[in-house]
Automatic annotation (TrEMBL):
Protein's name according to its UniProt entry: Lysophospholipid transporter LplT
Residues making up the signal peptide according to the UniProt record: none
Source organism per UniProt: Pantoea coffeiphila
NCBIfam families xrefs: PRK11195.1
Any GO MF annotation of the entry: transmembrane transporter activity
């Protein structure tokens, strides 16, 4: 890997760890404040909101200036969101500010890979960065779980009130530790070398910008390979983005776990995803990415199998396998989507289109779950509905891909050959 890739990975690790720790901390803060269940469930769609709203401008913004500075600015915004939470701003509002930073960060994070690395290293780079991201999720949710544990809260209370006599709710100090990781990530971002990529002037005409974004969406959804990869990653992230809270809620109902205990199961999913992602980066070539489509239906079945379980050991094993299945499917499809997007419209714009679709799916599923949240039937119904939806939609995606091969054999063959040739360069 080229110089600078290590810096990208390090910054991504710190920023992603903070994202996931803050999610658990925000859940803990809402529970501490006696908020309704729907507010905790709403953290997921609230985070996704700015991804959807800013999608038309996030890509051009990432392409208009060096992406290392875009990422540094984004992490600074996330740190500001933590500070808002510390100052007593409602966790949903403060967490939405972190979502704002994340929405700007994502096109730059993935776009810089296509600028820094040759196509031949994209799948492997995606495997490593996704694997490291998942590792940060594991540590992040565990760190967040430890921070909101009774022991930690009692320790903070003793230090703040007894030793230092600081007024106010000591629980509001929890986001301070998370904020330090965002600051670290922003500093690391500044050490990423200049890729030398050509910068594109940021459009000043909003209608033209929206029209351009719509055209980019159309290009990806009409591309015979891009549409398959985009549909797969959109569905994957729509489900997995909400699954981390659903797992917390399911563990509370089925196993009687508190937030700290349930966060370990979220970590188990992440470990499995990391293993699957790294394995795929070595075993699946870019031109063979569509072969992983059937794994999507398997993932849906695994989610539904979680419903009858009451054993923590069996649940952990099932979640580990589900995570590995998802990770093995995600990495090659994500790399294929980046490859097609880069060829069709440029890195930043293609990632913005990808984020728009994926986060819109997260937002939609999250809103539906927030409305239905409220105890026993909601959690089990959500798992069954999510699993069934994944099975049906992944079967339809597979049928669409086979239809593309049948009706447009030359075009699909050409695009797959292009992917293989670019990978071999």
């Amino acid at each position: 890997m080229k110089r600078g890739f290590t810096s990208i990975m390090s910054a991504q690790f710190a920023s992603s760890l903070a994202d996931n720790a803050l999610f658990v901390v925000a859940v803990g803060l809402l529970q501490h404040q006696g908020a309704a269940d729907w507010q905790s469930a709403a953290l997921v769609p609230v985070f996704a909101f700015f991804y959807v709203v800013l999608a038309p401008v996030a890509g051009p913004f990432a392409d208009a200036m060096p992406k290392r500075w875009v990422m540094a600015i984004s992490n600074a915004i996330k740190a500001a969101g933590c500070l808002m939470m510390c100052l007593g701003v409602h966790p949903l509002l403060a967490y939405s500010a972190v979502g704002l930073g994340a929405a700007i960060y994502s096109p730059a994070k993935y776009g810089i890979l296509t600028e820094l690395l040759p196509t031949s290293q994209l799948v492997k780079a995606n495997g490593w960065i996704e694997g490291l991201t998942i590792a940060s999720i594991v540590l992040g949710v565990l760190l967040g779980g430890l921070m909101v544990s009774e022991t930690s809260l009692q320790l903070i209370f003793c230090l703040v009130h007894t030793r230092f006599a600081i007024p106010g709710d000591p629980v509001l100090l929890l986001p301070v530790a998370v904020m330090l990781f965002y600051v670290l990530a922003a500093i690391i971002n500044t050490f990423i070398p200049d890729t030398g990529a050509v910068l594109h002037r940021f459009p000043k005409n909003l209608p033209a910008l929206l029209s351009s974004f719509g055209e980019c969406n159309r290009l990806l959804w009409h591309d015979r390979l891009g549409q398959i990869a985009l549909a797969t990653t959109t569905l994957f992230w729509g489900v997995s983005g909400n699954l981390r809270y659903i797992v917390l809620a399911w563990a509370a109902v089925a196993l009687g776990y508190n937030t700290t205990q349930a966060s370990t199961l979220v970590g188990v999913v992440a470990i499995g995803t990391a293993a699957g992602a790294i394995l795929a980066s070595f075993r699946v070539r870019l031109g063979d990415a569509p072969r992983v489509i059937p794994l999507g239906a398997v993932l849906g079945v695994l989610l539904m199998l979680l419903v009858p379980l009451t054993s923590a050991s069996w649940a952990a094993a099932l979640l580990l396998v589900a995570g590995a299945t998802g990770g093995y499917m995600l990495v090659p499809m994500n790399a294929l989507l980046q490859h097609r997007g880069h060829n069709l419209m440029g890195a930043g714009r293609s990632i913005a289109v990808q984020n728009f679709n994926e986060q819109a799916c997260i937002l939609l599923i999250g809103l539906l779950y927030s409305v239905s949240a409220g105890g026993y039937p909601g959690v089990y119904f959500a798992l069954i509905a999510l699993g069934a939806m994944v099975v049906v939609l992944m079967i339809l995606i597979g049928v669409k891909y086979r239809n593309n091969i049948s009706k447009h054999p030359r075009e699909v063959t050409r695009l797959l050959k292009m992917a293989r040739l670019d990978e071999d360069l």
